[in-house]
Amino acid sequence: MKVIHSVHPDDFKSYQTEQIRDRFLIDNLVQPNQVNFVYTHYDRIIAGVAHPVNQALRLENYDNLKAAYFLERREIGIINVAGSGIVTVDGRDHTLQKMDCLYIGKGAKEVTFSPGNEQESPVFYLLSAPAHTVYPTTLMTLEQAEKVQAGADETANKRTINKYIHTAGIQSCQLVMGLTILHQGSVWNTMPPHVHDRRMEAYFYFDVPAGQRVFHLMGEETQTRHILVDNYSVVISPPWSMHSGAGTSNYSFIWGMGGENLDYTDMDAIKIEDIR
Fold first, then answer.
1. What tens digit of pLDDT does each residue of 8-36 get?
2. Which of 164, 223, 240, 271 is most buried, by the most CB atoms less than 10 A from its CB?
3. Binding site as annotated, residues
4. Is 250 helix (H, G, I), strand (E, B) or coil?
5. Can you quote the record's cofactor note (predicted)?
């Protein structure tokens, strides 16, 4: 399991392209019949992908955790971003269609990922955080998710925000998760941008059309940098960093956080005119 260490904002100012990509970008996670994870030192968040094509995959334990099993002291949020799949938790099956979300609480011992049909294999995005309380395993479909309409056509940022794991949704210890779908003709996400010093955030970009890219913006508001990302890429955003992006086409992304609270609205807004 690759480990990503924390970075001080003063050090970040001197980073060149390859350093930024190495310290904050997670790519090549989607591999047939594999579960791949990266451990970060930002709120001890673990990000990964399970891609079962023609066999079931187990949520294995890792030496990094020093635990008896993966979820001994952790919780995990799972959102399927392709096809149909089945997540089995301690013997109980949960079917996830595209953009459905499953939360699994602390203490679940046996978790497996299986394909749901032969037409299109599922791609399960996985985000895990340390947990101190047991909350029940809960499935929420895309239709059941709380929805917020944001942005406008004239500013190219019209989008639908779907909230799954948060204060008023699926209950968790510290995970907050949801996904944003940009409407056709819109390319800007999270614009105007914000920061939240109380928690980190990770973006997982998906449904990026072949040949297209997203310019993910990060850094302090007066010292911005960018990472160019492809489909199925994760960008880790430290608490001191703004997070936004613009694509060469519309796309979707999953936002996930861990930290001090579960309040979706806990953010410090940045004025567009203050960005440098």
1. 999 999 999 999 999 999 999 999 999 99
2. 164
3. 194, 196, 201, 243
4. coil
5. Binds 1 zinc ion per subunit.
Which residues on adjacent β-strands are paired with residue 139?
102
Contact assessment for residue 176 and residue 264, using Cβ atoms and an 8 Å cutoff: yes
Checking if the pLDDT of 2 tops 80, the result is: yes
Annotated binding site for Zn(2+): 194, 196, 201, 243
Question: pTM above 0.70?
Answer: yes
Would you identify the CATH topology of the domain 2-274?
A: Jelly Rolls (2.60.120)
Whether 101 contacts 140, CB under 8 Å: yes
Q: Give me the torsion for CA of 253, 257, 261, 267, rounded to 10°.
A: -60
Q: Which residues contact 82 (CB under 8 A, 6 or more apart)?
A: 98, 120, 121, 122, 123, 206
Question: What is the reported pLDDT for 193?
Answer: 93
Q: Contact 237/199 with Cβ under 8 angstroms?
A: no
DSSP-derived secondary structure letter, 22:
H
Q: Which helix (H) or strand (E) holds 17?
A: helix 17-24
Tell me the two tokens of residue 190. Answer: 């999270």
Give every CB contact of residue 18 below 8 A, 6+ residues apart in sequence: none
Q: Per-residue pLDDT tens for 218-262?
A: 999 999 999 999 999 999 999 999 999 999 999 999 999 998 888
Q: In the structure, what pLDDT confidence band is assigned to residue 94 with cuts at 50, 70 and 90?
A: very high
CA-nearest of 174, 209, 218 to 76 is 174
At a CB cut-off of 8 Å and minimum separation 6, what does 265 contact? none
